[in-house]
Amino acid sequence: MPMRGSPSGRAEVHVVKSAARTLEILEFFDEVRQPANVVTVSEALRYPQSSTAALLRSMVAMGYLQFDARARTYLPTDRVGLLGSWISPPLFEDGALLRMMRAIHRRTGQLALIAARNGDFAQYIHVMKQPDAVSCHIQIGMKRPIAFSGAGLVLLATTSDGEVKSLVHRLNAYASSDAVRIHLPELLAELAQIRRRGYCVSRSRVVDNFGSIAIRLPAELTSRPLVVGLGGCTNVIEERESELVAIMREEIACHLVRPRGESASLASSSDGRLQTSAA
């Protein structure tokens, strides 16, 4: 597993270190999906080994990790899996969201992710990938500037143009250089295209030769906008765009559509917000 730095954007706000480390440990296990010892966790998250050991022991005492004394490894317990299952039941209660991601990942062979808005960022809240894939730079918890990533643009497309203008005015006021300033007319035109098409294709926005496709999940299933994305080499995304979009829409409809049996599609409402509608 690649070393994890501080890609999540946590440095720009004040975060209680112990709280952040506890959650990052859970995110680490969600990513590696296997038992790990103190040294492995410490090296992957770049924590001091002594404090890592103390934190892991505390999580065992609270019932969130189990400890294998013979192998000297730790692993999350079922208690972790039950946390948050009451939030957006259609997505999480019966595992529909993860089944959808697995199906998309399996059928496309590309990285699959779920992203949500966190302030001025799009944050990856779940990532499914091959360990040696080109997309290894993407980690759970990472944040990308909302106006400079495919997932972020789809999330921005759920807001009104007035809200986008206010956001751009604020971000440009703090921009460190012209290179990171946002050109509002171009952004509004791109968001309008996303609303028409129902998805966004991103090419080399954050990492050279890496692209993505992002689609919003049905609005009625979640308390906040969520985006499902695919990531891979830019040439693959460009050559297979139609096929990949079709697969993503098929799996969203198969796993997340309400029981009445109607498929969901993305449409643009009169106020410019992305919504789901019966096809």
What does this structure look like?
With 279 residues, the chain is α+β, with helices and mostly antiparallel strands. It contains eleven helices and ten strands. The strands form three sheets. The protein has a six-stranded antiparallel beta sheet with strand order 5-4-3-8-7-6, sandwiched between helices. The protein has a two-stranded antiparallel sheet with strand order 1-2. A two-stranded antiparallel ribbon has the order 9-10. Strand 6 and strand 7 form a beta hairpin. It is globular and about 60 Å long.
Structural key phrases:
279 residues, alpha+beta, 6-stranded antiparallel β-sheet, 10 strands
- Major beta-sheet overview: 6 strands, antiparallel
Would you count the extended β strands for me? Answer: 10
Rg over CA atoms, rounded to whole Å, is 20 Å
Order of helices and strands: HHHEEHHHEEEHHHEEEHHEE
User: Can you list the strand order of the major beta sheet?
Assistant: 5-4-3-8-7-6
Strand content: 15-25%
Name the quaternary structure: single chain
Mean pLDDT: 83
Q: Give the % helix.
A: 40-55%
Distance between the termini: 42 Å
Secondary-structure class: alpha+beta
| Number of alpha- plus pi-helical segments | 11
Q: Regions with pLDDT < 50 over 5+ consecutive residues? A: 1-11, 260-279
Shape, principal axes of CA atoms: globular
